[in-house]
Amino acid sequence: MTQNFPNAPAVGEPMVAVRPSTEVREFLSLRRSANKAAIGAPGPDADKLDEILAAATRVPDHRRLSPWRFIVFEGEARQRFGEAAAQVQKDEAPLVDDKALETTKGLLMRAPVVVAVISSPKDDNKTPVWEQELSAGALCYNLLLTANAAGWAGCWLTEWISFSDGINKVLGLEHGERVAGFLYLGTATMDPQERARSDAGSLISRWEG
User: Fold this and answer.
1) Cis previous bond, 14, omega within 30
2) What's the predicted TM-score (pTM) here?
3) More exposed terminus of the chain, fewer Cβ within 10 Å: N or C?
4) 92: Cβ–Cβ under 8 A, 6 or more apart, which residues?
5) How many CA atoms lie within 13 A of 26 on its CB side?
6) What pLDDT, in 10s, does the model give residues 70-114?
7) Residue pair 67/139 in contact by the 8 Å Cβ criterion
8) CB 192 within 8 A of CB 148
């Protein structure tokens, strides 16, 4: 198997503090999520996905708590999740119509590989839970970057399945855990257009005391 990412150095090995790169600057400046309706097969196989996920975990993580984990959906598991999610939707919203239920059944079928990033903070009164949840958000974004750098289109979505107690039970989430997002990965079937961006200058202030 061709390795897309270098192996991590040994613990304690000296590393450079900065890695200036014109290519990376261009990559980050032009980053764009794929359209959720334009991600098709193939997706990364198990070995390639494991590489991507390993690289994605290199995010800020105070005290090395690893306050997150992954749940991967591939093949028929995506359809089984859709069926279970539709049942949850009926239980939580008894007036839901058939069209909405069919949409729910197809949510994870929009890409060949879907990764749920689970925020799993350790509430030990040392590292604030909010800080750990921010780390989970960084992991979602880094997963998009690593997948894209490896040649895969990706999209980070939440939707109602990220905020449902019933879905949390389906996923086997423990107390304090919640879904940070579902990452849809595969092959772009259409290139996205540039979208409107915020004016960074209007969002910057400098504190002077």
Assistant:
1) no
2) 0.95
3) C
4) 164, 165, 166
5) 3
6) 999 999 999 999 999 999 999 999 999 999 999 999 999 999 999
7) no
8) no
Spatial separation of the C-alpha atoms in residues 75 and 34, rounded to whole Å: 21
Query: Which architecture, in CATH terms, is 34-187?
Result: 3-Layer(aba) Sandwich (3.40)
Chain centroid to Cα 68, Å, comes to 11
* CA–CA distance, 124 with 116 (Å, rounded to integer): 24
The letter for the amino acid at 111 is A
AA identity, residue 10: A
Which residue blocks in 44-189 are alpha helix, DSSP H? Answer: 46-56, 76-92, 98-105, 129-149, 165-171
Those residues with Cβ within 8 angstroms of residue 207's Cβ, 6 or more apart along the chain or in another chain: none
Residue 137: both structure tokens together = 């958000």
**Segment 190-200, tens digit of pLDDT:** 999 999 999 99
- Count other C-beta atoms under 10 Å from residue 140's C-beta: 20
DSSP letters spanning 150-167: TT-EEEEE--GGGS-HHH
Residue with token string 């915020």? 198
Q: Which residues, at least 6 apart from 78, have a Cβ–Cβ distance to it below 8 Å?
A: 108, 109, 114
